[in-house]
Structures are given as C-alpha cells and as structure tokens.
Amino acid sequence: MRLAPQPSAQPLRLVVVLLLTTAAGASPMLTPGCPDKCVCDEQLVVQCAGQQLSTFPSNVPLATRQLIISNNRIGELPALWLNYLSDLVYLDCSNNSLTEISESTFGNLRKLAYLDLSFNTLTRIADRTFGPLATLVMLRMTDNPGLSEVHPEAFMENAALQVLDMSRNNLTVLNITTLIALPVLRSLGLSGNPWTCEFYIYIYIYKHIQYEKYIYSHLHTYCIYVYEGQRLGELGMELRTLCHQTLDSLDYLFFVLIGFVIFAAGTVSAWVMGTVMVFYERYIKKKSQQPDTDEEDETSDQNNTSRAQSDLGLIPRGTAYFVPPGGSIL
Ligand SMILES: *[C@@H]1O[C@H](CO)[C@@H](O)[C@H](O)[C@H]1NC(C)=O
Ligand SMILES: *[C@@H]1O[C@H](CO)[C@@H](O)[C@H](O)[C@H]1NC(C)=O
Ligand SMILES: *[C@@H]1O[C@H](CO)[C@@H](O)[C@H](O)[C@H]1NC(C)=O
C-alpha cells in the first residue's frame, strides 16, 4: 500500500528536493516540482490554462513570476497559498468561477504588475481588495456579468495603475473620485455596462489634459446626480442636453471640415457646370457658322415656308419644288 503524502511530510519533501537539486547544480527555487496538469519552465512561468481545474493548483513553485490559471473552473483564490508567491509579477485568472476576492487575497503580492480577473462571476469589489498592489500597472476586470459594485476607494492605493478595464460588467454607477486622482492612469475602459442613464459612457481616457477634464467632469457630474438618488426620468433630458453640448475640439474640427468639403464641392460643381455651359455655347455657335448647317437650316426654313404656304392652300400638298439657292417661291 502506498502512502499518500501527508501535509506534515511537505517540508521534509521540500528539503529533500532542495538538497537533490542543489547537488545537481540547478537553481534551488526552480524545481520543487510543478503542479499537476501545469507546465513550468525555466523562466519561472507556470502555465495551467484550460486544464479544467476546480481548485487553485497546489505546489506552485515559490519563485514563480508568471502564473496562468485562465480557462478553468477555479472558484476561489486561497489567500494563504497565493501569498507565498511573493515574486509574482503576472497573474492571469481570467475565465474562471471566482465569485469573491477577499481583502487578504493579494496581501503579499507586492511585485504584481499584471492582473486579469476577466470572465469570472465577481459581484463586488471591496475597498481594500487591491490595496497592497502598489506596483500594479494593468488590471483587467471585464465580462463579470454580475459585478455591480466597485467601492469608490478600491483603486486608491494603486498608484502605478496605467490601464484599468472594467468593460462589460453590471455597473450602473461608479464614483470615479479616486480614479481621477491616480497619477498615471491613462486608459479606463467602461463600455458595455448598464449605466443608469443614457449618457453614453464609452471612454478610453487618455492623459490629455483638455480631453481628460472634459470627460471626467461630466462623468463626475453624472455619478453625483445618480448617487443623490434623483430619478432617471427627471434626469434624462438634462443629461441628454449635457451630452449634446459637449463637443470637443475634434468634433468642431470635423464640422468645420465637413462644412469646407460641402462648400468646396459646391464651388467645384458650379465651376464645372459653368465651363460646360460656356463650351456648349461655343460649340453651338461654331456649329451654326458651318455651311452644312446653313443649308440644313435653310431647308428647314423652306420646309416651314412651304408648309405654311400649303396650309394657306397655295401649293398642293405632296408637291416637290426646286428652290434655287437664295431664291424663293413666288
Ligand atoms: C473559457 O474556458 C472554457 C474552457 O476552457 C472555454 O471553452 C471557453 O472558450 C473560455 N471562454 C473564453 C471567453 O475564453
Ligand atoms: C445586474 O444588476 C441588476 C441590479 O442592478 C440585477 O437586477 C441583475 O440581476 C444583475 N445582472 C446579473 C447578470 O447579475
Ligand atoms: C466618491 O468617493 C469619494 C472618496 O471615497 C467620496 O469622498 C465622495 O463622497 C464620493 N462621492 C459620492 C457622490 O458618493
């Protein structure tokens, strides 16, 4: 009968492995095993994507810098295990079944720069959740269909945050007071949320002072309105006018350009028409000066004359007459 490894046997095993690997001349932190169903490489990357894991992989090497556990069914990030991985820089937990993240989950991940929590079932983000992640640069938290509450101070301490994507969640309101204050935030994705009013919040904010002020101030206004508990029916028109008033300089440039294009098109077509007319007139004149045309004209004149005369009963119909050039029928 084989004995399953006991939890208490773990440290001993680790020591043995360490001794063995040190003897073999390899880096001791690299090789204390690799979790089941995962692939570990020498760049300290542990790849466990799409393995139908329902729990966080155990025995992740302590020196791991990149951990990818996306496309599984993991329901919980155990704070205790995760916080051993204090060298973690990159953590991809997208497409799992995470419903909650406790305040201690990321407590020790002080080097984490990239965190992906997209495609989970999170419902709320508390204020301290991301607090310890002082070096976090990019946070993706999209496509959590039940995520309707993000604490106003959730990102207050993420001073390195540059990209925050919260698209396609269930957010109806968002207090962005602390987001505005983030020093290097340059992109904020908020599209595809059921915002409580018709204000079209599709925003990628770039650190472009004018633009930023304009977007922020209106987002802010909007949030405050909603927070103050006003009913949407009362707000609808007001916000709509607000939206329509707020054209930025690019919009104006666009209108000016369109105006110019229409003006130019009008001028050009008028010029073309004029030219065509002039040429047409010249052509007609030229044509009327040619002898052929003269004869034709005369013949038709003569026809007219003869018709007129036959109408008067002077000349029997159907009779041909020879008319000498310059002559006339008497
Ligand atoms: C999520 O993971 C499942 C299982 O691996 C996969 O079939 C599905 O396409 C993934 N969805 C997304 C949006 O990546
Ligand atoms: C989104 O939030 C609303 C309440 O704001 C709730 O009624 C609805 O069920 C939520 N949607 C999902 C998918 O959880
Ligand atoms: C938004 O959050 C800030 C910071 O927590 C708070 O001081 C402010 O009162 C909040 N605004 C609203 C409208 O709730």
TrEMBL record:
It is found in: Cell membrane. It is a single-pass membrane protein. The keyword Disulfide bond applies. GO terms for molecular function: potassium channel activator activity; transmembrane transporter binding; voltage-gated potassium channel activity. Residues 1-26 form the signal peptide. The chain crosses the membrane at residues 252-280. It comes from the Eukaryota. GO terms for cellular component: voltage-gated potassium channel complex. Keywords: Cell membrane, Disulfide bond, Ion channel, Ion transport, Leucine-rich repeat, Membrane, Repeat, Signal, Transmembrane, Transmembrane helix, Transport. Residues 290-310 are annotated as: Disordered. Pfam families: LRR_8. This is Leucine-rich repeat-containing protein 52. It comes from Cynoglossus semilaevis.
